[in-house]
Amino acid sequence: MSDLEDRARRTMMRMAGEVRSDPELPPPVRRRARRRQAMIAGVTGVAVVASIVGIGVGLGSVRANHATDIQTPATSLGSCAPGWVVSPKPVAQGIHSDLLVAAAGTSPEDVWAVGTRFRGAGASPVRAEALFEHWDGVAWSVVPGADPGGRGAMLTGIVALAPDDAWAVGTVAGRKAADLIEHWDGVSWSEVQAPSSTSGGIESIAASAPDDIWVKGTDYPVVGGESIDEDVYEHWDGASWSSFVGPRAVDASLGTSTTQVIAVGPTGEAWAGGGTVKGFGEAGQVSGALVERWDGTSWVQMPPPQGDRPVSALAVVGARDVWAVLGGQLRTFGGWGGGGGNVFVHWDGSGWDRSVAVDGSVMQIAARSPGDVWAVGITSQGGPLVEHWNGKGWDAVDTNAPHSITDGLVAAGVTPTGSLIASGSGHPAGLGGSSTGAVGPLSSYLWIDCR
User: Fold this and answer.
1) Largest CA distance in the chain
2) Domains and CATH numbers, the chain
3) DSSP-assigned states of every residue in 394-424
4) CA 16 to chain centre
5) Beta-sheet strand order (sheet of 420-426)
6) 147 Cβ neighbours under 8 A, 6+ residues apart
7) How does DSSP assign 205-223, residue by residue?
8) pLDDT confidence of 405, banded at 50, 70, 90?
9) Any idea what the Cα angle at residue 83 is, between residues 79 and 85, rounded to 5°?
10) Which of 44, 63, 304, 355 is most buried, with most CB under 10 Å away?
């Protein structure tokens, strides 16, 4: 590992902490919990820091936003204050660490960030529970979720469609159906019964409208004596859920395959991305990308981008306009593989074109229009990464980050009004890497690009 990679890894490790997995979780989910932590430790997708590709990114059309360590937010719903908002992170006694992995909002004054809260201190076992944090334009607060029978849970994704209509997904331990779906009605979060019974839970959620929501989960059937990943897609049409099984893209005797991210375009085009694996268990190695698309009746396999890297982030602008990030790691039942630096690739309706390599690791990508696509993550130097597609090329955006922000951005989303929000959290600069917050107060932050 190079010195550059090591600095990036150490920076992002402060966001994840060194959390033991909940002993209540089944073995596959315990592995997934550990690896989801490692995702925030420096990789797009999950696991270890990817090899950073040292290819420069064009800096034309760079935008800078005024920033201060603490920016006073707008107070009226629907207004927008561009740039950085930094505020204390809500913490409580007995918390080992918090891990946020996804964010969505209806406006810059109504933002949700979700992940996992790990309780426990000293010799006490660490216990996982679903974590909902909400930004109201003034401060962050922890909002109670539905208690799934007292079992350990972790959230992996969220969409926000209106102030009284948000959906979050994840995994719950200790029951046959590990799927966790929760709905916000403007007053409280409640658990919603999933239509399928998957043993691996849900990795991703995307929506184009309140009656067009897709979630992607994983089941682990045994084929030929080996447990493999099976993609399960669930769709909400505004009245009920339907369940679909994805195509199996690899001969079960040779290996397995799985998608790990799902994205939906503004008119309902649904795509999913992941990778294929040769071999089983810890010996399995990622052998290429996997892309699937909803054709209106079923999920079908699409031609994947070339190479041996998985798809780790995805954004759909239209049926002939899809962006993917190659590189990072792939979640699989038996092990991890792949890696490599991140590269943007684009689907134009007939094939994938290789675009610009990223000087850092992309955590998430979001699209506002064909000429307005954003990616966020961690730079190779360890700070917040923001890349922008302007219709002609990718530009690294100078966000003029406050001195207090030394970590990357882990999530991005577009509000219904078109403003971009990107979130992260970490310790203030110079306070070290304590996962308990004992060294100094934790901060949460948003970077906002208004529209």
Assistant:
1) 59
2) 3-120+153-432+439-449 (2.130.10.10)
3) EEE------TT--S---EEEE-TTS-EEEEE
4) 14
5) 83-88, 443-449, 420-426, 411-414
6) none
7) EEEEETTEEEEEEEE--EE
8) confident
9) 85
10) 44
